[in-house]
Design a protein that fits this description.
It is built from 15 helices and twelve strands. It is an alpha/beta fold. The longest helix has 24 residues.
Length: 393
C-alpha cells in the first residue's frame, strides 16, 4: 500500500556524503516505490546553538518535535521518521497524542555503540583529551545518554543499517526485536553498470575511500599500506578524502613509500566510479561503521575488499567468497590477507566476480521495499495495540 511518510533529518539532501547521502537516497527510493514522502532537512530546523553537543542536548529535540507537530497539523502521516536519538521528544509527543501514526528512530550508527566501541581504541592509541575537556565531555555524554534511553523507550520502531546496532538496542536498552529492523544500505543503479572483474594490473593498485576521522582507523591503514608497499615495489595506493586533511593523512605513511601514495580530493559520487575502476583492492580498516557504504560501492565495481569485521561489512561480506574480513584493528591479518590475494589471481578474479553479484542485490529500491515492510508491520502492531514498550535501561 502507499504510505504517507514524514522524514526529518538534520542534514542537507546531498548524495555525496555519508549519513546525508543515505537519507537522501532513502527518500528518493521511497518516493519511487509510490509513497508520499514529506522530507524535512536541516534548513527547516532551528540552529540557534552553535555548539555541536549542546545543540543536540538543548535545541534539536525541541526542533524535531516542533517541526513534526507543524507538519501533522498540515497533513496526515502514517509514519514519522527522524534521524538520531534526539527525536525522542517527537516520539513522546506522538504517543501522548493518541495518534495511530508510528514513530521511527533512524540511526546510521547508534551513538552509544559508537561511544562504547571507540573507547577501546581511544585507550589503545592514547587519544585522551586534557582533563578539563575530558571532564566536560564525560558530563555531556551522561546528559546525552538520556536522549538514547528515552528514544529507546518511546519510539515505535528503530531502523538501523547493521546487525550490531540492532543487537545493541536489544541487549543494552531492552528494545523488543519486533521494534527493530536492520536494513542494509544500497548502491545507486549506475554503480552496477559495466562493472568488470579485476585483472593482474588492477590488483597492484590499492584504494581507500573515506573521510579522515579517528573511527576510520587511519593509523591502521597507514601501517598496513606502508608495510605492503615496502614489501612489494610494484604496489601503489590511493586515498580519496577531503583535501584539507591530506597533510594529516600523508603523515600516517612511512616516508620511503610516500612517492607511491596518491591523495585525491573528495568528489561527487558518480565521479568515484572511474576511481574504483582503476583499482583492484579496497582496504577498509574502520574501528567502527554504522554501515560503511564505500565498501559496497567498491564491491559493485569488482574490487576485492579487505575490511574490518564490523558494521555493514560483517553483514554483507561472506569471507573468502565475495570479499575478506579481518579482525578489527589487526594490522598483521590485513597485510597477510592482501598478500594471499596478490599471490592468487584465480582467487582474486573469482571473489571480484562474486562481489559484483552480491552488491547488485543491495539497491536503494530494495532498501525501500524492506523499509515498507517494516513500516507496515509497525502500523499493524500499533493499530492492534500490540506494540511492546521496551524496558529502557
Amino acid at each position: 500500500m502507499s504510505l504517507r511518510i514524514l522524514h526529518i533529518a538534520d542534514v542537507l539532501p546531498t548524495p555525496n556524503s555519508g549519513a546525508a547521502g543515505t537519507d537522501y537516497q532513502g527518500v528518493l527510493a521511497l518516493q519511487r516505490a509510490g509513497h508520499h514522502v514529506r522530507a524535512v532537512w536541516a534548513d527547516e530546523l532551528s540552529h540557534r546553538i552553535n555548539h555541536y553537543n549542546l545543540r543536540y542536548l538543548l535545541e534539536l529535540p525541541r526542533s524535531y518535535r516542533e517541526v513534526m507537530l507543524r507538519c501533522l497539523r498540515e497533513e496526515d502521516f502514517d509514519v514519522v521518521q527522524f534521524s538520531q536519538p534526539h527525536g525522542f521528544l517527537a516520539a513522546k509527543a506522538l504517543t501522548a497524542s493518541g495518534s495511530r501514526t508510528v514513530s521511527v528512530h533512524r540511526s546510521h550508527g547508534f551513538e552509544p555503540r559508537v561511544r562504547d566501541e571507540l573507547a577501546i581504541w581511544h585507550r589503545r592509541f592514547s587519544t585522551k583529551r586534557a582533563f578539563p575537556r575530558q571532564l566536560a565531555s564525560n558530563v555531556m555524554s551522561r546528559l546525552l545518554e538520556r536522549n538514547n534511553r528515552l528514544v529507546a523507550r518511546d519510539a515505535d520502531g528503530h531502523l538501523v543499517s547493521a546487525s550490531q546496532c540492532a543487537e545493541y538496542l536489544y541487549t543494552v536498552y531492552g528494545v523488543p526485536s519486533a521494534r527493530v529492523a536492520s536494513i542494509s544500505q544500497g548502491i545507486p543503479d549506475d554503480f552496477s553498470l559495466g562493472a568488470r572483474n579485476v585483472d593482474a594490473d588492477r590488483l597492484t593498485r590499492m584504494l581507500h575511500v573515506s573521510q579522515y576521522a579517528f573511527f576510520k582507523a587511519p593509523m591502521i591503514l597507514g601501517e598496513v599500506v606502508s608495510k605492503l608497499l615496502t614489501q612489494r615495489p610494484d604496489l601503489c595506493f590511493t586515498w580519496v578524502c577531503g583535501a584539507k586533511h591530506h597533510p594529516q593523512a600523508l603523515a600516517h605513511f612511512a616516508p620511503e613509500v610516500r612517492a607511491r601514495i596518491s591523495l585525491v580530493d573528495w568528489m561527487p559520487q558518480d565521479c568515484l566510479i572511474d576511481v574504483y575502476d582503476r583499482h583492484g583492492i579496497f582496504l577498509f580498516p574502520s574501528f567502527f561503521e554504522g554501515f560503511g557504504k564505500a565498501f559496497l560501492e567498491a564491491m559493485s565495481r569488482g574490487l576485492v575488499v579487505v575490511a574490518a569485521d564490523n558494521g555493514g561489512m560483517r553483514d554483507v561480506i561472506t569471507h573468502g567468497v565475495d570479499g575478506f574480513k579481518v579482525p578489527t584493528g589487526d594490522v598483521v591479518a590485513m597485510i597477510q590477507q592482501v598478500g594471499f590475494i596478490l599471490n592468487d589471481l584465480t582467487l582474486a578474479t573469482a571473489v571480484s566476480a562474486r562481489s559484483i553479484t552480491t552488491a547488485s542485490q543491495l539497491s536503494w529500491d530494495q532498501f525501500a521495499k524492506n523499509c515498507t515492510l517494516f513500516y507496515e508491520n509497525l502500523i499493524r502492531q500499533k493499530t492492534l495495540g500490540v506494540v511492546v514498550q521496551g524496558a529502557a535501561r
